[in-house]
Amino acid sequence: MEDITNLSTRSGPDAGGEASCSLTPGGNLGIPVWLRSDFGDRTNVFRGVCEREAGLTRKLRKRPFLGELSCSTGRGAGTVANYGNDTYSPPFAIQFGQTGRASHLLAVGDEDGYVTITDTNEDLPRGRNESEDHRPESRWCASDNSIFDLTWSHDDECLTTVGGDEVVRIWTTETQREVVALGGHTASIKSVSYKPDNENVLASAGRDGAIMIWDLRDTLRGSSGAQLTRSAHKPVATVHNAHLKGTDGGRRARPSRASTSRRRTIKSHPQSVTGLLFLKVDNALASCGSDGKVKFWDVRRLNRPCHLITLPRAPGLSRDYGVTSIAQDRCGTKLAVTSFNDAVYLYDCVRPEIGPVATCEGHEVATFYIK
In the chain, what percentage of residues exceed pLDDT 90? Predict the structure, then answer.
């Protein structure tokens, strides 16, 4: 906070309970600022700090001013309905661009297998009826099945989609042309993520219980300028049964006396990996599953996870609930975990074993499609 000089206060009925301050950073420039002496609807955090610095009040509201954080009006606010082919389609995945030049572009993957990119800098529709006439930046069919997740490349030149067709597809955002198709999963792919410090490395996970690491440099070398067939692509590393129940930290538990049919059922129906995320730490990968656990992996040693955390059980429940998705803040210090027991848990990425540092409740999670 710069030094405040040339402070003059006015009191009395004519002053309106306000104070006039002249902020002079370095004594070269004076910026008049009007401050209220009491906290009203027009007061914000900055004004509160200035009041306290000027000695006009000792109060400082700690809670955010929700009215100022609202984006219900103004440029960039509106309703984006996923509408195409004369019908609405439920969106399953959304993500903004990663770079500054494309951060206003919103990509949406839907149940019908379409990808829609909308420029949120434009005047967006205010209601559902108006949104039917709104034309997005681009829209194309990326799959003959549902799209469960998508992510932009580091430079926003490409968009990667995964879904029910069991293939990782990479598209150019300018021409909407498929440039790479990575095949290897044997069930729907639920999540995909790029390594933050390497644009050529990505990971995918799905209902087959497998986590696969891909290196696009090997793909491009093998293609010799031409697109490879799906069978030609091979992941550089694979973790099978990553979230299989009855395992402890990646190791298979001691066999029980289950019947042969029970063992065949487990083998034919592996535990689904519902979420996957490369962390902002060297070679660190986090995954979550329907077993209610979050596992942290070192991609250099994938034989077992580095850390294993089990979400707290809801009061009165005797079984673990699945995890629908995970997300990390920009600083890379906190990990948000969405649970099927209607709670979002916040973990410290440095010490996840200490348990959640905060819990957010109030919403309802009734399906794994909610992220």
Answer: 34
